[in-house]
Design goal:
Blueprint (H helix, E strand, L loop, with lengths): L2 H6 L1 H4 L5 H9 L2 E5 L5 H11 L3 E5 L24 H12 L4 E5 L5 H9 L3 E4 L4 H14 L3 E7 L2 E7 L9 H4 L11 H4 L3 H20 L8 E6 L4 E6 L20
Length: about 260
């Protein structure tokens, strides 16, 4: 690290669990962020400010006026622009050392198979079950840890799915792909503005812990928030042997 980086990340360097070695790990890391909306905004901003060296942000959508109630990476000057490009501009304004690749595309299975293989950690900030299952399948296949968050109305959840751990479940263990799940859009249900900030910040925190090895992650635990009462509930999770994604003796590929 150069002198400017030592000053920029000084508050991380003072943490025993991170220090210089941990910060170097962040500077060398690559995080993949799926979605640049309510959750993806704080995720990308905090990963960028924390010094994660490379970010890839995938989102096919454009900035709309209705987004600005909660999607803090965007502003009125970027209405009509791709959200991924808007996030890149915001992160660059905060920390120009971060290399952020903005992909204005849908996160389909073929794209995810390529991108997940090159990432150190994946953060799912999408808003539909099809994408979440596609992201999960790619993470299991390539042995990458997945930080998954969701928020709608006043309710939210977050967990880490890290199948590198023998007993840790994947997203499909908890939400089977063949089960009947109904996607609910913010346009019809609404969303409490700070809720996505709370969950997105926690997703960024879990990713930084995974990249540095600091603390204990949420692998095997699902946190659920009722923001009306600001009450958290926790459910312990286990891998399901019958899970078609990670069960049945599946072994994720090793990274070389």
């Amino acid at each position: 690290m150069n002198d400017r980086q030592l000053l920029r990340y000084a508050r991380h360097l003072m943490l025993d669990e991170i220090g210089i070695e941990g910060q170097r790990l962040l500077l060398d890391a690559h995080a993949l962020v799926i979605g640049a909306g309510g959750l993806g905004s704080p995720v990308a901003l905090y990963l960028g400010t924390a010094g994660v060296g490379r970010l890839t942000v995938v989102d096919h959508d454009e900035v709309d006026l209705t987004n600005l109630q909660r999607q803090i990476a965007h502003n009125e000057s970027r209405l009509g622009q791709p959200k991924a490009e808007s996030v890149r501009a915001m992160v660059a304004a905060i920390n120009p050392d971060v290399q952020l690749r903005a992909l204005v595309r849908r996160a389909d299975a073929a794209l995810l198979d390529t991108l997940v293989a090159g990432a150190d950690v994946v953060l799912d900030c999408s808003d539909n079950f099809a994408t979440r299952h596609a992201v999960n399948a790619a993470c299991v296949r390539h042995g990458r840890p997945l930080v998954s968050g969701a928020a709608i109305g006043w309710d939210a959840q977050i967990s880490v799915y890290d199948t590198r751990q023998a007993d840790a479940p994947c997203y499909g263990c908890l939400f089977p792909a063949d089960a009947a799940h109904q996607d609910v859009a913010c346009a019809t249900m609404g969303v409490f503005a700070p809720l996505v900030g709370i969950v997105g910040s926690m997703q960024a925190a879990e990713a930084l812990k995974l990249l540095t090895g600091a603390g204990e992650t949420l692998a095997g635990r699902l946190l659920m928030l009722d923001a009306r009462r600001m009450q958290w509930d926790e459910i312990r999770l286990a891998r399901q042997p019958q899970c078609p994604v990670c069960g049945g003796g599946h072994r994720p590929s090793e990274r070389h």
